[in-house]
Design goal:
alpha/beta, Rossmann fold, Immunoglobulin-like, 2 domains, eight-stranded mixed β-sheet, 8 helices, 29% strand, globular, disordered N terminus
Length: 438
Amino acid sequence: MKKIYTAITAVALLLSAATANAQCPGERYHNFVFPGHTLTSGVQYGSNLKTNYAGVGTMQNLLMDIYQPTGDTMSNRPLVIVAHGGSFIGGSKTGTDVVQLCKDLAKLGYVAVSIDYRLGMTNFPFSSTHTVDSTDAGAAVMRAVHDGRAAVRYFRKNAAVGGNTYKIDPNNIFFAGVSAGGFIAVHVAYMDQLSEFPSYVDTTGQPGLHGGIEGESGNPGYSSDVKAVVNVCGALGDVNWMQPGDEPIISFHGTNDNTVPYGSATIYLSGTYPLLVVDGSSTIAAKADALGIENCFETWEGQDHVPEVGTSANALAHYDSMLVMTRSFLQRQVCGTPLVCGYNGALYSVVGISENTIGQCLNVYPNPSEGTFTIDLSAFKGAEVQIDLYDVLGQNVKSIRSVKDDRLSVASEGLKSGLYTLTVTSNGKQFSRKLTLK
């Protein structure tokens, strides 16, 4: 079903440079133009019945944390709603899988929101006589999707009749999610007709599921449509719900994901109990290609579930690539810039970026690197610089002095695989970039 926010005409796609610049001033949405975020915690966006082991419903207030760019004066800002993972039985809006993303989106100029949603499945934890099945799992997904839609509606209602407290642009609302949150994002986007509501979901025997596609979690009468979605290791109940003209999507998924299928397969609870057959990110991307839906898909070769979460070198490298590619994808949707799906020399790592303009232009590629990497020093305009490479223990493992070239290729021979910090020193000031060596 075509959505009002995604049925974009060819003329609209050909925005003039002047219009794009007016909507996206300076380096906003491309660089970290704000020093940090201002956090408003525990804002209620709705309420609904949640379930317990016995299928008894109790009312839950639905809360969210709102991250705004510190010092921002713009009054009409794009919004990214982010949903955490946890297999619909755990996780929270303050989880490590979503908080850093919200902080970084705020520094780019977005209002970012991390939501809690209803967790739990009837018959879980299970016993020898009761086990979770597709009815229980489907109900858990639908409760979360209803809550995600209510969060979208909250901001449109607030913009219309609540004074637009958070200064958002109701025409630029995006949904992002990790793992279970990725499920929510793609279902909010593509499960948009009542006929698509899964027949195995029991809306009478399971609590908190009334209201059809939209649900009854709050803020009725306002649209829950989103402009595009970011899916990190999530899946969709059925890609046949996708239609030409539907929302653009960017997805990330590991080929060895043992939690959520990379393609189309049965999903298991705790790796043992079969729940549902779902369509993972690779199937979603193939369907989007077939339907002409604008999309990007990053395959994380050999990686398991959510490899971007954590503090290891591998996690930081995958988070870096996810953030850079998401940055470019969202900038396309907001500003009309060309679609860039790859992580390549035209992009730079925004993780740990200096607030200084020169630091914003410092680029190292390829990143991750194997063999030789190149440092783009053109922003220093021929000034003499010193380059140092530090390992995760803070030890200097390579130093190059008196460099005046615009670009410098450096061999990584003799260096171990892992995460490094590359520092460029010029006129007593230092600019750093994270670098991963394979």
